[in-house]
Amino acid sequence: MLKDRTAIVGIGQTRFAKTLDEPEKTLACRAVLAALDDAGIDPAEVDALASYTMEETDEVELAKSIGAGDITFFSRTGFGGGGSCATVAHLAMAVATGQASVGVAWRSRKRGSGVRPWTNTSVQLPTPAQWTRPFGLLRPADEIAMLARRYMHEYGATRDHLFNVALACRNRANQNPAAVMYDRPLTREMYMDARWISEPLCLYDNCLETDGALACVVVSAERARDCRQRAVYIHSAAQGLPAQHHGMVNYWNDDPLTGPAWTAARHLWKTADLGPQDVDTAQIYDAFTPLIPLSLEGYGFCGRGEGAAYTEGGALELGGRLPINTAGGGLSEGYVHGFNLINEGVRQLRGSSTSQVPDAATCLVTAGEGVPTSALLLRN
Amino acid sequence: MSVTGTPATGVPVTGTSVTEAVHAAGGMAGGLLLPWPDTDGEPFWQYALRGELRVQACADCGLRRFPPRPACPRCHSFADEWRPTSGRGRIWSFVVAHPPLLPAYAEQAPYPVAVVELDDDPTIRLVGTLTPSVRRPDAPWNAVPVSRLRIGAPVQAVYQILAPGVAVPRWALTTP
Ligand SMILES: [Zn+2]
Questions:
Q1: Which residues are in the Thiolase C-terminal domain (chain A) (predicted)?
Q2: CB-count burial class (<10 Å; 0-12, 13-18, 19+) for A169
């Protein structure tokens, strides 16, 4: 079992912006070195690396630039934002099983100034794109909007529920000077009048397009006690690829609205001493607002079909039942494939968030729902 | 070609593959993306070119599966057959796409796209654009007013030729 045998002891990040001048590789190096400095660990001690398959700075480039030592473990996780928590989970497993001692996970992405992946017409991945793209279902927003309308139809969810999600994230961003939307408040009127992207989703149901990089450092619990920062323990971790799942176009099984969150959650809670009722704050992957109600259900904060109603009455705000995305999330802090949710989870358990949940002792961090996913349960 | 054995009904598909036709067209037609078949999907597109909506089924245990794939997830047989369907279904969900989109798509936006569940087997669902009538397979993508769309609305497959040797099913609204 992984239970509390490893810890996150360093976090680092660059600035987030629509456009940063430096290339992705430079941003990656800056974030990794900042995380190691935060931990008080010499880069020469790094012997494990983990990132996303979509990461374009590879292990060779990163290791030689930061002055890493001999690397004995390296892994990549697929499916875009579904891999965020898995990077940390893989490092935790590597450290817990003695394959390595100092692991670094990172993500660097120039999505704000770079191209949007869906505009690439030459990468017509035959499966499953042949069943969707020729019919004008081009973008991730379209694919998720399809599930969102069905969800709204089956369970009576409304645009106001989606607004509750967008607003909670924006309110937290308005407290976080590092957030792209720090000085941009959101009102219900702005939300309801916003232009559509893919009905039923409007502009504010979609995450930001951001340039930025983040990293964190994983070591054993023993080593963590000697580090500069308060240790944040990896209590449990899980990945999830459900039977007969089809990615974001999950239209072809008995129950398309039961996504990977359900699979990851079962394993996460099975290997934990805690349950959903013990979680003080959650950093839930929010590329699109409907992923929040779907994830709230999957991770067991409420029953099937109750995720939208759960957002009512300020439940997701500071002081609510479950404060989420306390740095602003992908919707309002920055969209870096969910890695910023990991770093914010660490800050909450160090007590250093700009929207601190009083005495936060446990934090759930999730990766992309609607794709093969992963999750971490952190504690201090 | 993955068509092995004899389909339960009709004749096996033969001839120039849709994949070759798509390659010949450069994968695009008038700025729109053509289906880029893989080996497993090729028969679907060949039947579509004939105006038939067929789905892959296990030749041993009979389980229908979509999207097509090499083996049966239930009995693990690699033998398959392509079963005809009625081409009738109901809208399971739909979106209305607005810009930013690729230029040829933006020209038709906002346009609806539906996921349709087949009457023959509701867990087989197909994505498609909509047309107001079975007599108008070539109607613009935005020809159906969004106000006419609702989940559960009955539809019928029609076929539009997008490029030489390449046809796609679309969904025509029908009266219940
Ligand atoms: Zn079978």
A1: 254-372
A2: buried
Using one digit for the tens of pLDDT, what is the confidence trace for B17-67? 999 999 999 999 999 999 999 999 999 999 999 999 999 999 999 999 999
- Looking at residue B92, which CATH number applies to its domain? 2.40.50
Q: Which chain B residue is nearest to residue A195, measuring alpha carbons?
A: B98
The predicted model scores a pTM of 0.95
Give the domain-ending residue among B34, B63, B84. B84
**Nearest residue of chain A to residue B128 (CA atoms):** A135
Are B92 and B75 in the same domain?
no
Instruction: Give the mean pLDDT per block of 10 residues along chain B (176 residues).
Output: 37 69 91 92 96 97 96 98 97 98 95 97 94 96 96 98 96 88
Do B106 and B168 lie in one domain? The reply is yes
Q: Between chains, do B111 and A136 touch, taking CB under 8 Å as contact?
A: yes
Residues B152 and B165 in one domain: yes
All structural domains of chain A: 6-113+208-379 (3.40.47.10)
CA of A201 to the centre of ligand 1 (A): 39
Number of structural domains in chain B: 2
Range of the domain at B97: 88-173
Q: Which residue of B has its CA nearest to A255?
A: B123
A116: closest CA of chain B, how far (Å): 11
Picking from B68, B84, B100, the residue at the C-terminal end of a domain is: B84
Q: How far apart are CA A340 and CA A208, in angstroms?
A: 13
B18 in the same domain as B51: yes
Count residue pairs from A and B with Cβ separation < 8 A: 115
Residue environment code for A229-261, b if the CB has 16+ CB neighbours within 10 A, otherwise e: bebbbbbbbbbbbbeebbbbbbbbeeebbbbbb
Query: Are A130 and B37 within 8 A, CB to CB?
Result: yes
Centre a 10 Å sphere on the Cβ of residue B24 and count the other Cβ atoms it contains: 13
- A233 an active-site residue? no
Average pLDDT over residues A207-229: 97
Query: Which residues in chain A have Cβ-Cβ distances shorter than 8 Å to B94?
Result: 146, 149
Instruction: Say if residues A367 and A77 touch (Cβ distance below 8 Å).
Output: no
